[in-house]
Each structure stands twice: as structure tokens, then as C-alpha cells.
Amino acid sequence: MDKEESSVESKECCTRSELVSEDGKNLKSVLCQRCGSKVLCPGMAVYSEKELFLPPMRNKKAPSLTEGSGDNLSAHWLVDDMYTFENVGFTNDVGRIKYLICADCEIGPIGWHCLDDKKSYYVAVERVDHA
Predict the structure, then answer these.
(1) Which pLDDT score, from 0 to 100, does residue 6 have?
(2) For residue range 75-85, what is the model confidence (pLDDT) as tens digits?
(3) How far apart are alpha carbons 112 and 52 in whole angstroms?
(4) Parallel, antiparallel, or unpaired for β 107-108 and 71-79?
(5) Of 50, 53, 66, 71, which sits most exposed with the smallest number of CB within 10 A?
(6) What whole-number distance in Å separates Cα of residue 70 and Cα of residue 124?
(7) How confident is the model at residue 47 (pLDDT cuts 50, 70, 90)?
(8) What GO molecular function terms would the record report (predicted)?
(9) What is the torsional sign of CA 56, 64, 106, 92?
């Protein structure tokens, strides 16, 4: 099975009840879809529904796509301290936003952080794997 089939399969196999504990935290490790690096350990983030716009997934070195393309995503893992992450990088500021990327392979954005709120780091559930 190739990497694409694996990531599609993992997205389809995990329902919300398989990912979120009774107290709203992540039951499984949160991993980079591309390289498998651990982004968050189990129990370290809270499930949150907030609609956020994220540009298309790409490697940091890839050319920029047209402005305005991307996804409005509403299912996220919310982390209140940047030091909770096992492995995450941040882009340069884009207005008042920093996007979260995998620190190992630099694919992203996998999440979103507004500089006005020092306690809210969002990782899009659809843009990561769970194991």
C-alpha cells in the first residue's frame, strides 16, 4: 500500500468517537500525514470546532499557489501552549497569523495560530494522521 492510500485509509477509519475521549481530548497520537513525525501525544489537545481558513498543503520550498485558494476547516485539535507540541514548526507571519507546519518535512499548513491569542494553537484534524 502506498503513502496516499495509507493516509486516505486512516482518515476513513477514524470516526470522531475513535479520536476524541469523553473529556474531549485526543485519544491517539497526532502524526504528520507525509513523514509520520509525531506532532502531539495522546491526551495533549482538546477537540474544537472553529471554522478557519488554511491555504493548500504544500512543502515550504514549493512555489506559492494562487492567493485565496485553500480550505475552510472546522474540526481542530486545540493546544494552549506551544511547548505541548512534540514536533511543529511555524511559518513567518502572514498578517497576524502564523501557520503550523511539520518541523521535519516542512509540509503544511497543518494548523493555525493568531498572534493576538497566545493560548490558541489549532491543528486541523483533516490535515494530520492519527495512530
Answers:
(1) 36
(2) 999 999 999 99
(3) 8
(4) unpaired
(5) 66
(6) 13
(7) very high
(8) guanyl-nucleotide exchange factor activity; zinc ion binding
(9) negative
Q: What is the pTM of this model?
A: 0.84
Query: Rounded to an integer, what distance in angstroms lies between the CA atom of residue 5 and that of residue 89?
Result: 26
Are the C-beta atoms of 87 and 37 separated by less than 8 Å? yes
**What does pLDDT average to over the chain?**
87
91 and 19 in contact (C-beta within 8 Å)? no
Could you tell me what percent of the chain has a pLDDT over 70? 82
The C-alpha cell at 94 is 502572514
CB 73 within 8 A of CB 54: yes
| Cβ-count burial 2-38 (b if 16+ within 10 Å, e if not) | eeeeebeebeeebeeeebbeeeebbebbbbbbbebee
